[in-house]
Amino acid sequence: MDPHLGTFPILSYVISRLPSFSRIKLTFKFRVLLKQTVDKVCEIVKKQLVVEGFGTFTGSEGETYCGSWSSDRKQGYGQKRYANEDFYEGLWKRNVQEGEGRYVWVNGNEYYEEWRNKVICGRGTLIWANGNRYEGQWENGVPKGQGVFTWPDGSCYVGCWNKDLKVHQLDGTFYRGIISLLL
């Protein structure tokens, strides 16, 4: 008896009584038809299943998301640990970071506050593992506009920034830190 037809005993019996050439041909056709039918049913079921509410997802690369879902998308509050061990917790909208959230890189750097369409944007703070800190305006993932950069010794620069923390015209004020004054 063909193991693929075991769940269809009558059909399996009929096929087993046919001459071997016909049996092989019919069995092959039935397997193809059965596979196509199963594939189609799986496709229909997959289209109809929609994740809603609260749940945990583990991806094939090892990333995990635990949080709110709506229409198969991350929506609302959730926490995601990426395969490289980076971590995000905060608000999601249509599967991307949107609104307030905190991202911690595996190297110890941390950003918190505003996200727009999965990009750091608006008001936010980035704290480096070495103690440097930038607090201010961001645009498309880079500091842009008013902000304060503070070094670990307490020194800081207050002014206008333009990409990659480079000072856009030294129109701000530099304040020496307490540690610098003691040296």
Automatic annotation (TrEMBL):
<dbReference type="Pfam" id="PF02493">
    <property type="entry name" value="MORN"/>
</dbReference>
<protein>
    <submittedName>
        <fullName>Phosphatidylinositol 4-phosphate 5-kinase 2-like</fullName>
    </submittedName>
</protein>
<keyword id="KW-0677">Repeat</keyword>
<dbReference type="GO" id="GO:0016020">
    <property type="term" value="C:membrane"/>
</dbReference>
<dbReference type="GO" id="GO:0005829">
    <property type="term" value="C:cytosol"/>
</dbReference>
<dbReference type="InterPro" id="IPR003409">
    <property type="entry name" value="MORN"/>
</dbReference>
